[in-house]
Write a structure and sequence with these properties.
- The complex is a heterodimer of chains A (454) and B (576).
- With 454 residues, chain A is α+β, with helices and mostly antiparallel strands.
- In chain A, 45% of the residues lie in helices and 18% in strands.
- In chain A, strands 1-12-13-11-10-8 form a six-stranded mixed sheet, covered by helices on one side. A five-stranded antiparallel sheet of chain A has the order 3-2-6-5-4, sandwiched between helices. A two-stranded antiparallel ribbon of chain A has the order 7-9.
- Chain A is elongated, with a radius of gyration of 32 Å.
- With 576 residues, chain B is of the alpha+beta class.
- A four-stranded antiparallel sheet of chain B has the order 1-6-3-4. Chain B has a three-stranded antiparallel sheet with strand order 5-2-7.
- The longest helix of chain B has 37 residues.
- The chains are: A alpha+beta (454), B alpha+beta (576).
Chain lengths: 454, 576
């Protein structure tokens, strides 16, 4: 039975984030000297889930229970209806209500502006900003164009407002507008005879302006418009930060793209060369395998492949390694057909196998075994690659997984990509010790929104 | 009690095989040459057998025959609906869902509509449906051991719950397609062999026999053993040989049962003379032939509104299959949308073949062994009929075969359900790992056990039918609209799930506690799908129409994922 919880043998130490899904990485198969090393990224956050939340509830078949249930449903429905109709008005002192109203309105504007300054976000935040400023009309502009206008007077005043906002955008200084600036000096009945234009900034650069118009510019308007603009600017800056973070993650992922190791290319070509004279047919087959493998690793579309594809790539890879090692390399494969369709990052399994071959078999005398397992773990797919080679010092392995040592680029790369895609608790788990072989385990969720094999 | 011991051995063997194979599963090591074999998806026939194996539950194996015997041929709508549900699955859901790659219904809900809150609501209904569906499995196990060994009802319930829960908590029985596929063939053999033998031995039936105006009669002198104390009604006076406690008096020898109600205590035996009319238990309606052969549900009820009840049952079973949490998972094993469709077609065939046989048991029992009407344990007809009609050791052996098949049914279905329920709890509600999953499995099994002890008095198929009604009122609209209607929003989906789920659950709970026993209330509460399914659809549509802004931003790509066949997907270029 797989993944039986075994208490660690006395000499075995377990490392790693405490929250990592455990149970699958205790010392297996009488190999008590191994240490389990979970890759610990600095960003891992220990999460404590309250497992006591769900308690058994017994539905007794009693009319009392039903009456209670119906009553509870009725109360819940009625309560939510009341809350919905009454809203939150009428709760608290007048001061508390005012605070609530202001913060609530500001929150509405903030939510829209959090997506950056676009026509849509401007249109959605303008009414809230108008309410905050108690203005007759508000406008939001970019540095050159009108994005949204809330309130009356868009036909008569848009041109003048746009001109003023361009001025503010270039100077970066707030501007008070009088009737003369607003093209209604002749019309004493115009409700929008004065206003203010304040800059919206992000990262110190003016990205647009906020315009508030009223019948008469009160002294407070300019001040409060300045504060509101500062508040809006903060939101825009946060939006920019979000974008930057997403771009950084994407760039990192692109940088981390599946890589094939130069060692492998060199070794494979050398092996093929050695067959060229003695066994040209074999050499030809191997070259085909090599080409297939290179092609797979260069897939540019989508960064995900199915486990089935991955296993085929591993097969090709092993064909080439077998040309070098011959009978010294023994591979055992156990695959549950249920997980074949699971989408995983491209070139996830092959680097693990390569690691097993290089660190396990290459440096070992005699025959070495590599066991590749793909198991069905309920809503996860559990992949593991195990070798009976020379193993390594757990602390060295930890260095490797932290990216501080150069010779384990493959594992480090895989670990980073897994964490990027599936989150901090889905990194590699490695069990190893000197002379005790190595086992690398990966747990991949069977479904994750946005993760699809191409 | 040699029959019991043969059957017991058969049950134990099936249980052990299931557990061992489930635990070992893929332990069979493969050589590297098998790489390409290993990387090949499960072929549709095996996958179809696995789906059927997991699907054919206690309700199908025992319940269909029992309900047919008790309430008449109108109950054939249950098996028809169970099978036809796959037609709806085939037409509306199978291929798009496989293309989407969603592994569970909450996965689909979140992936398609992009709202974690919807995921939680969907998870709650996965739990409700899963637990509800566990109940008939547990009841089936309780009943089977009661009939075979004479143990109290709770023993069988506890045995099944403990075996399945501990097995899953220990890590066995996970998604083992091969095991479930074998289960189907075991079940088919276990029900087909006795059915065919019984037709040969006790056949020679005529259609006219079934439609006889009078209630069924004992055609030979028949001994009725009472295993649980029962109240029954005698239509015309009859003199029987009684051994045991009848009407609170110990009787040995002849006894005349007068017209009216009587009580027999457990352990008593009554021998009815040939030609006497079979009495029936309180709660089992005596039906004459013409009402028994009526093709409508509730045909025997006065004011049962048979047509409405029939349509409601059709709605529930045809649409409910879409929303069963443990079935969807199996489609994931298909290679692509096309394979998913082909698998579904084969499932329809496999289920169709299977459902031929329960009807054989029901018809034979009505004509040859109407003693079950007296004991009221109609759900046990498949288990007791071989023994009753074939007195030699072969009857015992056939009975053992049936018992083994029945246990295979309980094991496979309840394992699949428990894995789904525990998975939903561990991953969707608690976001935990393997250890959490184990704890959730134990908890889910314990809840199932406690609830399973409460449902002895309900027919297996009623329980399953209710489960289908809830699934049809919640996940059917979610899947159908989510796949075929672009304007669905998560707000609408939550509204529909809650309205459909709560209204159908409340209706069923009211029926369980006995509110609305006659007339329209009994139909609308007892078979609620006819109004709760449209209600859920309407709520989803209105809720979505009111919140068009909540449509997911990448709607187009999601619809493409669902509907674009794999063959038309852009080909991966050779290199960049």
């Amino acid at each position: 039975m797989f993944a039986k919880p075994v208490e660690p043998w006395p000499p075995t130490q377990r490392f790693g984030a405490d929250h990592a899904p455990s149970g699958g990485f205790s010392a297996p198969n009488g190999n008590p000297n191994r240490q389990a090393v979970a890759a610990t990224g600095g960003e891992s956050v220990g999460l404590v889930w309250n497992e006591g939340l769900i308690r058994p509830t017994v539905v007794g078949v009693k009319s009392v229970a039903v009456a209670l249930a119906l009553g509870a449903i009725a109360v819940a429905l009625g309560g939510s209806l009341w809350y919905w109709v009454r809203g939150s008005r009428g709760l608290g002192t007048p001061q508390q209500r005012t605070t609530y109203e202001v913060l609530h309105t500001a929150g509405l504007a903030a939510r829209a502006l959090r997506n950056g300054l676009t026509r849509e976000s401007a249109a959605r935040s303008a009414p809230a900003l108008r309410a905050l400023l108690a203005a007759r009309a508000t406008a939001i502009t970019s540095t050159s164009a009108l994005l949204a206008w809330d309130g009356a007077g868009v036909d008569d005043h848009a041109a003048a407002v746009l001109q003023a906002s361009r001025q503010v955008a270039s100077s970066g200084k707030a501007l008070a507008l009088g009737p003369g600036d607003l093209a209604c000096a002749d019309d004493v009945n115009c409700p929008l005879r004065s206003g203010v234009v304040v800059p919206l900034t992000s990262g110190g650069i003016v990205v647009g302006t906020l315009v508030a118009l009223a019948t008469s510019a009160r002294a407070g308007m300019l001040r409060s418009a300045g504060e509101v603009a500062r508040f809006a600017s903060t939101q825009l800056e946060l939006a920019e930060l979000d974008n930057a973070r997403a771009r950084a993650a994407e760039a990192e992922l692109r940088f981390l793209r599946a890589q094939i190791s130069p060692h492998f290319v060199y070794n494979a070509l050398t092996a093929i060369a050695s067959f060229l004279r003695t066994d040209p047919d074999r050499a030809r087959e191997l070259l085909h395998d090599f080409a297939d493998f290179i092609r797979y690793s260069f897939r540019s579309r989508g960064q995900f492949a199915t486990v089935a594809d991955e296993l085929r790539a591993v097969d090709t890879y092993l064909e080439l390694e077998r040309a070098r090692f011959g009978e010294r390399l023994q591979v055992v494969l156990r695959v549950a057909p249920e997980v074949l369709a699971v989408a995983v990052p491209c070139l996830l399994i092959q680097p693990l196998v390569e690691n097993a071959v290089r660190h396990g078999i290459e440096r070992k005398e005699g025959v070495g075994h590599v066991t590749i397992v793909a198991e069905d773990g309920d809503q996860e797919c559990v992949l593991s690659v195990e070798d009976d080679g020379v193993g390594m010092d757990p602390s060295a392995m930890r260095e490797q997984l932290a990216g501080r040592r150069g010779d384990g680029v493959g594992l480090f790369n895989v670990d980073e990509r897994l964490r990027q895609v599936f989150g901090a608790d889905h990194g590699l788990t490695v069990e190893t010790a000197v002379g005790a072989g190595t086992k690398v385990v990966v747990r991949v969720p069977k479904y994750r929104a946005g993760v699809r094999a191409s | 009690m040699s029959g019991g011991s043969i059957a017991l051995i058969a049950v134990i063997v099936v249980t052990l095989i299931t557990m061992v194979v489930g635990a070992l599963g893929i332990r069979i090591a493969r050589t590297p040459d098998d790489f390409l074999v290993a990387a090949r998806a499960v072929p549709p026939l095996r996958n179809a057998a696995a789906i059927s194996g997991e699907y054919l539950s206690a309700a199908s194996f025992l319940g269909v025959a029992g309900l047919l015997l008790k309430d008449g041929l109108g109950m054939l709508w249950y098996p028809v609906g169970y099978a036809a549900g796959y037609l709806m699955l085939l037409l509306l859901v199978a291929a798009p869902l496989r293309r989407f790659g969603a592994y569970t219904i909450p996965d689909f809900a979140e992936g398609r509509l992009g709202a974690p809150r919807l995921r939680q609501v969907a998870t709650i209904f996965v739990l409700v449906i899963g637990w509800f569906y566990l109940l008939p499995q547990l009841k089936g196990a309780g009943l089977t051991l009661q009939v075979l060994l004479g143990t109290p009802y709770w023993v069988g319930v506890a045995v099944l719950a403990v075996v399945v829960t501990s097995n899953i908590a220990a890590g066995g029985m996970k998604g083992v397609t091969f095991v479930q596929a074998v289960q189907y063939w075991i079940k088919l053999m276990a029900i087909a062999t006795p059915a065919i033998v019984l037709i040969v031995v006790a056949g020679g039936l005529h259609r006219a026999d079934l439609a006889k105006p009078a209630p069924p009669v004992f055609d030979t002198a028949t001994t009725v053993k009472v295993q649980a104390t029962v109240d029954f009604v005698v239509a015309e006076p009859v003199t029987v040989q009684a051994h045991g406690d009848v009407d609170h008096e110990l009787v040995e020898g002849p006894l005349t049962l007068t017209t009216g109600a009587h009580r027999v205590a457990s352990g008593a035996e009554l021998v009815f003379p040939a030609g006497s009319a079979a009495p029936h238990a309180q709660g089992v309606r005596a039906q004459d032939g013409s009402s028994w052969v009526s093709p409508l549900v509730n045909a025997g009820h006065k004011g049962g509104h048979p047509l409405a009840a029939t349509y409601s049952l059709i709605v529930a079973t045809f649409l409910g299959t879409l929303g069963l949490p443990h079935i969807l998972v199996r489609f994931y094993t298909n290679r692509n949308g096309r394979a998913a469709r082909r698998t579904t077609v084969i499932v329809l065939g496999l289920l169709g073949v299977f459902y031929l046989f329960p009807a054989v048991f029901a018809v034979l029992a009505r004509l040859r062994d109407p003693g079950l009407y007296l004991t009221g344990q109609t759900d046990s007809v498949v288990l007791v009929l071989p023994h009753a009609l074939i007195t030699s050791v072969w009857g015992e052996i056939l009975g053992a075969l049936v018992a083994a098949g029945a246990f295979a049914a309980f094991l496979s279905t309840s394992s699949g359900l428990l894995v789904s329920v525990a998975g939903a709890m561990a991953h969707d509600l608690l976001r935990g790992g393997v250890r959490t999953f184990r704890r959730c499995a134990l908890l889910a099994g314990a809840i199932g056990l406690v609830a399973g002890l409460q449902v002895q008095r309900f027919d297996l198929n009623l329980l399953v039918g209710w489960c289908f009604a809830i699934a049809a009122s919640t996940f059917c609209p979610l899947l159908v609209l989510g796949i075929w209607w672009r304007s669905l929003t998560w707000v609408g989906a939550i509204a529909g799930l809650l309205l459909g789920g709560v209204s159908s659950s409340v209706a069923i709970i009211m029926t369980m506690v006995g509110v609305g026993n006659s007339g329209w209330p009994s139909v609308l509460l007892g078979q609620p799908a006819i109004w709760t399914v449209p209600l859920a659809f309407v709520a989803m549509i209105i809720g979505s129409r009111l919140t068009p802004a909540q449509m997911p931003a990448d709607l187009e790509s999601k619809l493409l994922q669902l509907h674009l066949p794999e063959a038309l997907r852009p080909v991966v270029p050779a290199a960049d």
